[in-house]
Amino acid sequence: MRLRAFVGPACPAKLLRPRVRFAAQFHTPGTLSAMSENEARSPEAAAKDEEQLRNAVAECEARLKEFAGLAARARHEINNPLTGLIGQAQLLLREELSDTVRRRVQTIEQLANRIRDTVASLREIQMSGPVSRGGGAGPSDPTRD
């Protein structure tokens, strides 16, 4: 995951993949006696673990939302001067220029367009919000922008 460095240790992957203890869920005679005491968990311990998992997921989602906001601000701040740069290069290319200067201005325009395309890819981060858990603004919700 490319965002793992941003999410950091507060969102360990093992917390995002809850383990299911089938022996505890589908008890058959003798199954629980074969499990260690640590594996035979009380409902209170399971509820505590579930609450910790929910808190970790909520923290991860909040940090990802902050990152998406940062990406949107960076995109905006880069695009403003970049648009002016591309426009000025295009205006220069309309004029009569020596071959050397024309190649240099074309290089500036091409590189600025590469930056524009890279910055446009930051839009994907902003648009890929958290997965809806029912009733919320999911990816197919027309009210999302």
Verbal overview:
By secondary structure, the protein is an all-alpha fold. The protein is built from 7 helices and no strands. It has one domain. The two termini are 24 Å apart.
- Strand % is under 5%
Average pLDDT, rounded to a whole number, is: 74
Helix content: 55-70%
Radius of gyration: 26 Å
Number of strands: 0
Q: Categorize the overall geometry.
A: rod-shaped
SS field, number of helical segments = 7
Number of domains: 1
Q: State the end-to-end distance.
A: 24 Å
Mind describing the biggest β-sheet?
none
List the helices and strands and how they pair.
Blueprint: H1 4-7, H2 13-16, H3 22-25, H4 31-34, H5 43-94, H6 99-120, H7 122-127
Helix pairs in contact: 5-6
How would you briefly describe this protein structure?
This protein is mostly helical and 145 residues long. It contains seven helices and no strands.
Task: From the structure above, extract its key features.
mainly alpha; disordered N terminus; rod-shaped; 145 residues
